[in-house]
Amino acid sequence: MQIRPIRFQDRSSIAKLYRLVSGTVRGISRRPEEITETWIFSLINKPEKDLVGIVATVEDEEGDERIVAVAHAERNELACYSHILQDFTIIVHPDHQGTGVGRQLGFNFLMHISKNYSDIKRLEMVVRKELMHHNTYVKAGFKLEAEVEGRIRNADGSFSDSMMLVWINPNYKP
Fold first, then answer.
1. pLDDT by residue (tens digit) across 23-36?
2. What percentage of the chain reaches a pLDDT higher than 70?
3. Cα gap 174→51, rounded to integer Å
4. pTM over cut 0.85
5. Domains of the chain, CATH where assigned
């Protein structure tokens, strides 16, 4: 497995991966019909300073690179929030879930921020309370900052509570 930054030409592969995972994993907020080429284009086409993203790839039988996981977070466009990366997301292909790919990609993402983004102080993510693997995030250095009742509306109309988790960059320099 190789880990590298997201490239513009990854757009179609990431869109396919998102559609596949969003239809099968309850923890993904974005629904399959919400994953459009326009949304993927707008995500991947952001300037590097506004989108931090990496992918995990494997070689298929033909020797071609195949994306099996993606991790990304976005910088808010408002200057007062420019020290924050928000909406941290990790998507892993169903065939690779439970193999440690997501965990490895997540740790690499944190190292990437720590090494290359000293202007980023906070990395924020929201997870469903009932699906939160708290120990994994705590081991990575995330802290629980808030719990919000009924924040997430599920596809079936029910509501889930969410948890705001925050990781603080140890190499932040104001």
1. 665 556 677 777 77
2. 93
3. 19
4. yes
5. 2-168 (3.40.630.30)
